[in-house]
Amino acid sequence: MRILSRFIGGPGLRLGLVVLSAGLAGLAAVPVSAQQAQGHGDTVIRVPSPVLTLDWEALFEATRWGKRIRADLASESRALSDENNRIADDLIAEEKALTERRATMDPKAFRAEANAFDERATGIRNAQKAKAQALSRRFEEDRQAFLEAVTPMLDDILTKRGAVVVLDRRVIIRGLAEADVTDDLARLVDERVGDGPPPAETPAPGTSAGTEGAAAPGTAAPETPAAPATQGN
């Protein structure tokens, strides 16, 4: 039988990153100003710029909210992987037992039992695959909620810096580090929202109807949604 080869196979999910960049127009030159560093005798030269930069992925990874989303994903992915491995082991043992009984079974009875096993294994695989897809969708929804919640906070930084636009840092060929506000926004997000809203209640692996089986073990983490392009007023 080739039941297990069909059962265990299946595509994984990969973490990816899609970035949207913002446009830039009508920016006026701003003179350089000197500021005294707090607690130090050195003079720090700051360049007030109408253009700021932000690394969305670094922001997500640096904040408590983003870290909590990642940790939840990792925990649930491990639980699903463990469940898939356990179910796969059970099905392998069941198939082996059926194969060993074949010599003593009527051929028609064996074919009927083998077909029933194959059909059940396929249903189990589809159910487990649906679990992985649901986990992927929830991660995307949580991350998108993060991006939508923190984007308005950029207005405070734009006002404080006297800037008019924020660009994704990864579309910038060269620029001053002073223009990057990733760390500033990460601190602001931690101050205002901390770990973020409580995660939505989701069934533990193995509790959904029709999921007594394995999908492709080794399911990878889900895709990352696009970061929004951000502009000032």
Automatic annotation (TrEMBL):
This is Chaperone protein Skp. InterPro entries: Chaperone_Skp, Skp_dom_sf. GO terms for molecular function: unfolded protein binding. Residues 203-233 have a biased composition (Low complexity). Gene3D superfamilies: Skp domain. It comes from bioreactor metagenome. Residues 190-233 are annotated as: Disordered. It holds the Pfam family OmpH.
